[in-house]
Amino acid sequence: MQLIDKYDVVVILINFNNSNDTIDCVTSINKYSLVKPFVIIVDNASTENVDLRKSLAFYPHLELLKTKTNIGFGRANNLGINWARNNIVSKYIFI
Questions:
Q1: Of 10, 80, 81, 83, whose CB neighbour count within 10 A is largest?
Q2: What domain range is 32 assigned to?
Q3: Each residue of 21-34: pLDDT tens digit?
Q4: Phi, psi (degrees; rounded to nearest 5) at 69
Q5: DSSP state letters, 56-93
Q6: Structural domains counted in the chain
Q7: Each residue of 14-67: pLDDT tens digit?
Q8: CA distance 93 to 95
Q9: What DSSP character marks residue 95?
């Protein structure tokens, strides 16, 4: 397995039927971060009809994970953390 580039910070966001806030958060990260962190969004089985990947196409350092059922906030964070640890070299993981 080849790891993705090294990032100082990985940000994990949990989305559940709140795509507007998730998009606003990534927009803010993009606008105000001098060094862009890698962002992992765990979509916790949202039923919204929003394509987050398409809506966030402006942000290049992003992974979208989708769960089949709502696994809860804690387990969704663990899913994001495990993905980050297996795929990215980073100093910090921000939840």
A1: 10
A2: 4-94
A3: 999 999 999 999 99
A4: -130, 160
A5: TTT-SSEEEEE-SS---HHHHHHHHHHHHHHHEEEEEE
A6: 1
A7: 999 999 999 999 999 999 999 999 999 999 999 999 999 999 999 999 999 999
A8: 7
A9: -
N-terminal to C-terminal alpha carbon distance within the chain: 25
Does the pTM exceed 0.85? yes
How far is it, in rounded angstroms, from Cα 69 to Cα 45? 5
Quick one: 24 exposed, middle or buried, by C-beta within 10 A (0-12, 13-18, 19+)? exposed
Q: To which residue do tokens 């993009």 refer?
A: 30
Q: Are 56 and 38 in contact (CB under 8 A)?
A: no
Of the candidates 82, 94, 30, the one whose C-alpha atom is nearest the C-alpha of residue 56 is 30
What is the rounded distance in angstroms from the CA atom of residue 88 to the CA atom of residue 58? 20
